Amino acid sequence: MAASSRDQVLRLYRALLRESQRFSSYNYRTYAIRRIRDAFRENKNIADSEKIEELLNKAKANLEVIQRQGTIDHMYATEKLIIERPGNT
Amino acid sequence: MLLWRRLAALRGERTPRRLRAGGPGPGPGPGRKSDGGGAPRPLYMDVQATTPLDPRVLDSMLPYLTAYYGNPHSRTHAYGWESEAAMEKARQQVADLIGADSREIIFTSGATESNNMAIKGVARFYKSRKKHIITTQTEHKCVLDSCRSLETEGFHITYLPVKKSGLIDLKELEAAFQPDTSLVSVMTVNNEIGVKQPIHDIGEICRAHKVFFHTDAAQAIGKIPMDVNNMKIDLMSISGHKIYGPKGVGALYVRRRPRVRLEPLQSGGGQERGLRSGTVPTPLAVGLGAACEVAQQEMEYDHKRISQLAERLVTKIMSEVPDVVMNGDQEHRYPVLAHQLLWSLPMFCGQLEQMKTWLTHLLDLALVVSLQKKKWIIQCRSAYST
């Protein structure tokens, strides 16, 4: 039970980060990645399975938001910001 | 070519030609090339003026811009019902952010309309007995202008001065009360220099004098915890586009107990408790609600992050740039509104070009630099963006 839950969490985490990379807007991309990392880090020690399930559902909902918004952001992409030099995020 | 540049500089044009050269003019569009198509966009640092839409907010708005397009005031069919349900949900989300009841929230077109409604509405309703209003000299233009227009209607207004720190003097406020004062209007966080007024104390004073307290909380909402009951606020203006929500929508909190009466500015079909007639724009209201909900959830995390960034910005500039003065109170400010740090740098005219190059190179930011006599006043508006 714990193992599959752990796998689920990791899969979601990777999926969230992967989808966030697709944002073409610097702002959205860096915020999403940072927020996802910090949120998972903050909740990593939670043991209550109900709470874990609630958080996982929230993560799944957010994943869908990021997928949709990533596509829209890509459709309406514009020039890169001046600070997005090659090598930066 | 050189003559053109000189003429452009004299005219005060600030957008360099190189930025206009890329792509078919300003404005987005699917036809526009993204990678390497044009000149890079400047870094946005004017977050005090407006904020980008949070993706979560846009996501919540889109269904109401495409599929669920019913008028929320259509009582007789499903399109109306679903639209109304969304509007009421948004109302509850806004209310939750400020500790109010959802029946106390009125959707408006923005904080300017909310301010106008609050000030003119309260003043005119009670004009038979009460003809005095107290406000401050550092309020937003819409508040000051509303007061000015009330003066032509026969009201008298006290404009309280602020101390050097930007805060008002509570003793002066106490002294300004008159038997016919109907309203006190003080903004929570200043949009120019970021100082936070002592709203708790002002609320107490107003309650003691039985005078309504209005606050323009456009810059404070979603960034610092606001509770209309703790702070004894009777009217509060909320702006959508300052909290990562859509432009063109705002809200006005109007206390029900004890009831605050307003004379409506906008006449019509009696929507929004008769105080603001007109179809409520469901997608915008939904966006405002979502923005408030996101703000509430993220407030603590964002506050921590922005405090770190603001600390770094202020410390580096104060320590490494010579002869800098920071305007506004050091303690009673909202750290994020290191958004709006105004510094004064004494400069000699001869070193103008050198200083400009140095700063642009060092900070690599989009600064608005203007020359006033022999000083550069650098308006550096730092961004919320990561």
Automatic annotation (TrEMBL), chain A:
One term of GO molecular function: protein homodimerization activity
InterPro entries reported for this sequence: Complex1_LYR_dom, Complex1_LYR_LYRM4, ISC_assembly_LYR
An annotated GO BP: [2Fe-2S] cluster assembly
Pfam families attached to this UniProt entry: Complex1_LYR
Coiled coil segments of this chain: none
Cellular compartments per GO CC: mitochondrial [2Fe-2S] assembly complex; nuclear body
Entry superkingdom: Eukaryota
CDD domains, sorted: Complex1_LYR_LYRM4
Residue ranges of domain Complex 1 LYR protein in the record: 8-65
Membership in a protein family: Belongs to the complex I LYR family.
Protein name: LYR motif containing 4
The encoding gene: LYRM4
